[in-house]
Every structure is written in C-alpha cells, then in structure tokens.
Amino acid sequence: PILILGACGQIGTELTMELRDKYGRESVIASDIREGNDGLMQSGPFELLDATNYEAIEDVVMHYEIDEVYLMAAMLSATAEKFPMRAWNLNMGSLFNILNLAREGKISKVFWPSSIAVFGPNTPKNDTPQNTIMEPSTVYGISKQSGERWCEYYFKKFGVDVRSVRYPGLISWKTMPGGGTTDYAVEIYHEALKKGSYQSFLDKETRLPMMYMDDAIRATISLMESPAENLTIRSSYNLGSMSFTPNEVAKSIQKHIPDFTISYAPDFRQQIADSWPSSIDDTAARKDWGWQPGFNLDQTTVEMLENLKKG
Ligand code: VAH
Fold first, then answer.
1. Ligand 1 in contact with 76 (CB < 6 A)?
2. What is the pTM of this model?
3. What region holds the NAD-dependent epimerase/dehydratase domain (predicted)?
4. How far apart are CA 180 and CA 236, in angstroms?
5. Euclidean distance between CA atoms 78 and 276, whole angstroms
6. Measured from the CB, is residue 115 less than 6 Å from ligand 1?
7. Is there an atom of ligand 1 within 6 Å of 87 CB?
8. Interface pTM, i.e. ipTM
9. Is 140 a catalytic residue?
10. 241 Cβ partners below 8 Å, 6+ apart?
11. Nearest-angstrom CA–CA distance, 70 and 87
12. Strand partners, 131
C-alpha cells in the first residue's frame, strides 16, 4: 500500500486520485493535517496526520503495512518567507521522518518533491543544467536544496530508494495552490472567468518554468515506476515542460476571452521569482526514465477554462 502525506494539497489531491485509479482506492491511504475536499475524502481511506510527528506516521505505516510514501506536505516559497522557522521545521522534519522510516526498513520507496526554487540568483537562467551553481535565496529553496543533499546521502549511505523531481510552477484547476510564487498562473484563470481581469503580482515579462498538473502527476508516477538501476540522479531530477510570462498567459486567455485584461502590481514575490530560472534542461529525466512533456500553454489554457467553467 501507498501513503500520501499532504494529500489535500495542490499536488497531493491529484496524485491521490490518480494513484487510486491506478492501484485501487483501498491501496492508497491519504493523509494530511486537515481534511480535504469531498472528492478526495470520499475516494478512499484518510488519516489525519501531522507530517512532523514521527510516531504518528509510524503507527499509520505499521497499521496499513505501507510500502511506499509520497511526502507532499510542505510550506511553499511565499509563505515560508513569512514563517522561516515553521517552514524549515515542517519541510525538513517531515523529510527526516520519512527517510528514517525507510532507513529502518519500515517502508521500501519514497517520493519527495524538490523544486526549481533550489536554484538561486547566480544560477544560469536559461536551460538551467541538472548540475550547476545553486545558492537559493529563499527559505523554501534552502530547504529544498538541503532536502536534496539528504536524499542523496540516505541513498548512498543506507541504500534508501528515494526519488525526486524539481517541479516547476504547477497549474491545476482541481485544488487551489497555497502560498506559492507561481500561484498567479492558477489565479489568473479563475479571475478571467469571474471578473474578466486580473492584477498580476509578478511583472509582465517574468518568465518562469511551468507545467500543467497532468504532466506533473504523470512524471511523478513514471519516475516511481522506473527500474532503480536506470536512475543516475538521487538528489532530484530537473523537470521541464514550458516557460511563460504573465503577459503570454494573458494573450493565451484572450484567444478565448477577447476582452480579458491584465494589470501588473509586483509584490514581495517578484524578487523570489527573479531568483529562479527561466527555463530548465531536463535531459537527464528524458534519458533515464523517458520523460516527455505533454501540455503547452494554449492546451493548458483550454483545459483550465473548460474545467473551471464547469464550476
Ligand atoms: C512555489 N509552486 O511557488 C511552488 C513551486 C517552483 C514553484 O515551488 O513556491
């Protein structure tokens, strides 16, 4: 069986539903610090669980005889800047809990998400390489860089089968994101339908690596199902799909809602975004486990508007 921590989050919700479709609803235990939406709660077993509480996680792992854990609980970049110590404790405490359960042989495989936030202001911005300068300037990025180092250490030192991808900004309609810098790319679609206009908290030309959620879920499961011997990266794989600016999203929306207007009022999240790459080189993921992106910006816009319209 599989346990998902942070199952009610933006990625966790969709990952839970997809894994349940694939492996059966009783084989996937969802957990989070609070209950999730009805769709998730009615789709299979759920446990209220604090990802920083080792004993509580161990009890659930033993009770359900869990083999694999997807650790999707974290505090994201914007919120982490407001609560640095809480972010560090949650992001690192939860990772140590899961790595140590694996080290003790209580679980056999771990997925842990990293992020393009591991890169910093002096990282090459275009086609950012798998291995490059990484001096993250955000609490969240520091926790992701440190988490990557620990994942690789537990793999090399204790043979822990932990796998990871550096997610770009993710766009989805099923669950609102929480506290991210890339969340503008989700909010804009909601506002386009509700108000016909959006005030972006990132500047017109802020180009960031982005991905539609269906691609992110497919990548995650594809990596977890790959033979261990194929994997050459045990820190975290670069994962790319598309890169766009708020201006380009607006233009894509205007193909469907001609009167949609966008305005720009950058806030504290602008300097977070400015420290991140514009595009990612994901050659290693394509070579080791056959990664291929699916949705481009216009296809993402169609998916978002169609599904949000259904309400
Ligand atoms: C954030 N959505 O904005 C997350 C992600 C690359 C961005 O890590 O913090």
1. yes
2. 0.97
3. 2-240
4. 20
5. 13
6. yes
7. no
8. 0.96
9. yes
10. 168, 209, 210, 211, 212, 215, 293, 294, 295
11. 19
12. none
The pLDDT value given to residue 97? 98
Q: How far apart are CA 226 and CA 109, in angstroms?
A: 12
Half-sphere exposure of 199 (CA within 13 A, CB side): 3
* CA-based nearest residue to 216, from 178, 271, 169: 169
180 lines ligand 1 (CB under 6 A): yes
- Block residue for tokens 């809602």: 257
Structure tokens of 94? 């939860």
21 CA distance to ligand 1 centroid (A)? 26
pLDDT computed for residue 215 by the predictor = 98
* Helices and strands per DSSP (H, E), number in the chain: 12, 14
Q: Quick check: helix, strand or coil at residue 193?
A: helix
Query: Taking the CA atoms of the chain, what radius of gyration do you get in angstroms?
Result: 19
Q: What is the pLDDT of residue 37?
A: 86
pLDDT for the residue 216: 98
Q: Which residues contact 26 (CB under 8 A, 6 or more apart)?
A: 1, 44, 45
What's the distance, CA 55 to chain centroid?
26
Angle ∠(18,235,275) on CA atoms, nearest 5: 90
Query: What b/e string do you get for 123-143 counting C-beta neighbours within 10 Å, with b at 16 or more?
Result: beeeebebeeebebbbbbbbb
CA of 175 to the centre of ligand 1 (A): 15
What is the atom index within ligand 1 of the atom nearest the CA of 10? 2
Using left for φ > 0, alpha for ψ between -120 and 50, and beta otherwise, residue 102 falls in alpha
CA angle 305, 307, 309 (to 5 degrees): 65
Return d(Cα 268, Cα 253) in angstroms, integer.
25
Q: Which spans in the chain are helix H?
A: 10-23, 38-41, 54-63, 77-82, 84-103, 139-158, 184-194, 213-225, 246-254, 269-274, 283-289, 297-310
**pLDDT beneath 50: ranges in the chain:** none
- Provide the pLDDT for residue 22: 97
pLDDT of residue 178: 86
Q: What strands lie across the sheet with 165-167, from one edge to the other?
A: 114-115, 165-167, 237-238
